Amino acid sequence: MKRIRAIDFxxxxxxxxxxxxxxxxxxxxxVDNDADCRATYETNITGARFIKHDxxxxxxxxxxxxxxxxxxxxxxxxxxCSPCQFWSKIRTDKTRSERTAFLLRHFQKFIRYFRPGFxxxxxxxxxxxxxxxxxxxxxxxxxxxxxYAWNDGIINANHYGVPQNRIRxxxxxxxxxxxxxxxxxxxxxxxxxxAFIGEEHGFQRIVAGHRDETxxxxxxxxxxxxxxxxxxxxxxxxxxxxxxxxxxxxxxxAYRGRDDIFRDVYARMYWxxxxxxxxxxxxxxxxxxxxHPDEHRAISIREGATLQTFPRDFVFYGTNMNSLARQxxxxxxxxxxxxxxxxxxxxxxxx
Length: 351
Fold this sequence. Notes:
Blueprint: E1 5-9, H1 15-23, E2 26-32, H2 37-44, E3 49-52, H3 60-67, E4 76-80, H4 94-97, H5 103-114, E5 118-123, H6 126-129, H7 136-145, E6 149-156, E7 167-174, H8 225-233, H9 301-307, H10 321-330, H11 334-350
Parallel strand pairs: 1-2, 1-4, 2-3, 4-5
Antiparallel strand pairs: 5-7, 6-7
Helix pairs in contact: 1-11, 3-5
């Protein structure tokens, strides 16, 4: 079989593209409507094109012209990792994210038209666990009608080389075989925060608000005086806001007398455990367990990228720090994507 090639829909910064390319798959390009991602994607994904377009209005023939695609190409992969805020358990304004809830329907038109050899979906688990309300059952029925074998389930990226407890929904489909499995999980207890960041891994000690103007991007968000007091009182390696819950000056009104809710907010990561899910707000101490294990700050842009398994020479471009954090947090961890890519190559080789 000829070399597998891939189109990365909703590609963002290119985590899926990078991982698939490291597995040996040729990346033709990515499609996304976020202009902030263009420079990041095109700079780091060698030889791939970034098409800034909303998939809702992009036609299948136009996609084919852009990438010189042929129909019924068994060596073609369509990866669709659409924005997932609507199905996420994280508190979001669902009315703002509702438009992204049904992007799978638009992804279908490209599969219907081209009939690629493979389809990959990676998303939040809510797409699966709330499937009676989601578009997933209809999408799977669509795959079956078009002769795709498929398998899906909830996975933890930590079992696929990523130092995070990142719970995701994964679907792999192919029309090259009558059955298909998901990539095999390989739990590894050494995938901890300490194995990836810290001074011994080249991350010099910095303070909140530090700006790194180099491509390493070891930049940390500033903290207000009150937040600095809070994090200094928070125990190292896993401490939480329990340490200052009885401090009338520092206790947060929303949690006064309610310390049993959102327990990871204003907390530090553990050195000896995997990180929590790296979200689009990982650079903020107040948005989760994103405090550095022992320095008085939230983790830096490069630390978040490293915990997502982006390599050190992957450079992010954006209009501000929040743009960079959003690109990193939204990405498919490249190591997870690499293992998915190896799995696809194995299917192609053995049928």
